[in-house]
């Protein structure tokens, strides 16, 4: 059976695409990606093959059924892959997780509008209006309620679930715009920033096309508050200690340097996503730290 297809927008900016992709990567489900730049004709042209969808992300099942909207994608994947743990197994925790995902899907308009997701930057301040502060208070109520009801300490409803995937872009917004939250909420945000799938997505987003002007802000900047990546840089030439790309197995054509070592990849994207955050990629780390 063919894998699922998933249409996504720019990784640095498309919060809905991040949610949809996490439903695959965080739960170890195979998927073939189809990417398109936002604010161009690329997305509308790509979606002509995914009727009746009009947004990213959009999934197509192995049988060819098109499923737009992250709520529908989550439910369909959960029904097909019960073993993956997309929703909690406990009925009470599962009900709470669905409440959280539904409110995230439909609400928090002020937060989304004033703080559009941009994984390439972080600011010291963002002139937040009262409506954004109200959304943050609602988030705190929901998250504390979920954790108190389920006894969870790191994630919202026990193990990482679709509810957490839905709030990953919110964590990115809180981190990116330095929004005022409690220590407990910030601990939840930090758990997202350190999550392996989130780190992989952000690493790709850092090098996935040019900056989008729509997301540019003039606020004072600061370093990204997540885990600090290992220092690596792209270098010229094809000389490397390995002969095959750790991801594809294809011959080396692009090389990075890290701690005085040269490790090769089959294309610029494979190399540059690794430069962005080497520890996000287990197959690379298997070479770097055998």
Automatic annotation (TrEMBL):
Transmembrane segments: none annotated. Pfam families: GST_N_2 (PF13409). Residues 13-79 form the GST N-terminal domain. CDD domains: GST_C_3. Gene3D superfamilies: 1.20.1050.10, Glutaredoxin. This is Glutathione S-transferase. It comes from Cypionkella aquatica. The lineage of its organism: Bacteria, Pseudomonadati, Pseudomonadota, Alphaproteobacteria, Rhodobacterales.
């Amino acid at each position: 059976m063919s894998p699922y297809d998933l249409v996504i927008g720019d990784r640095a900016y498309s919060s809905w695409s991040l949610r949809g992709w996490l439903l695959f990567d965080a739960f170890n489900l195979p998927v073939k990606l189809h990417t398109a730049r936002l604010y161009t004709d690329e997305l509308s042209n790509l979606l002509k093959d995914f009727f009746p969808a009009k947004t990213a992300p959009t999934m197509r099942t192995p049988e060819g059924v098109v499923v737009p909207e992250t709520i529908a994608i989550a439910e369909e994947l959960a029904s097909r892959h019960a073993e993956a743990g997309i929703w909690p197994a406990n009925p009470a925790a599962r009900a709470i997780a669905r409440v959280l995902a539904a409110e995230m899907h439909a609400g928090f308009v002020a937060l989304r509008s004033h703080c559009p997701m941009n994984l390439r930057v972080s600011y010291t301040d963002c002139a937040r209006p009262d409506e954004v502060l109200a959304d943050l208070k609602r988030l705190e109520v929901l998250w504390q309620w979920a954790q108190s009801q389920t006894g969870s300490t790191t994630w919202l409803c026990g193990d990482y679930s679709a509810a957490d995937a839905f709030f990953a872009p919110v964590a990115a917004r809180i981190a990116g715009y330095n929004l005022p939250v409690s220590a407990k909420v910030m601990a939840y945000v930090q758990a997202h920033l350190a999550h392996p799938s989130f780190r992989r997505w952000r690493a790709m987003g850092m090098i996935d096309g040019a900056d989008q002007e729509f997301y540019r802000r003039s606020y004072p900047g600061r370093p990204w508050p997540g885990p600090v990546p290992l220092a690596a840089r792209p270098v010229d030439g094809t000389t490397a200690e390995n002969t095959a790309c750790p991801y594809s197995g294809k011959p080396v054509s692009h090389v990075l340097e890290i701690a005085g070592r040269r490790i090769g990849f089959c294309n610029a994207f494979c190399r540059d996503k690794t430069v962005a955050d080497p520890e996000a990629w287990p197959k690379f780390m298997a070479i770097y730290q055998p």
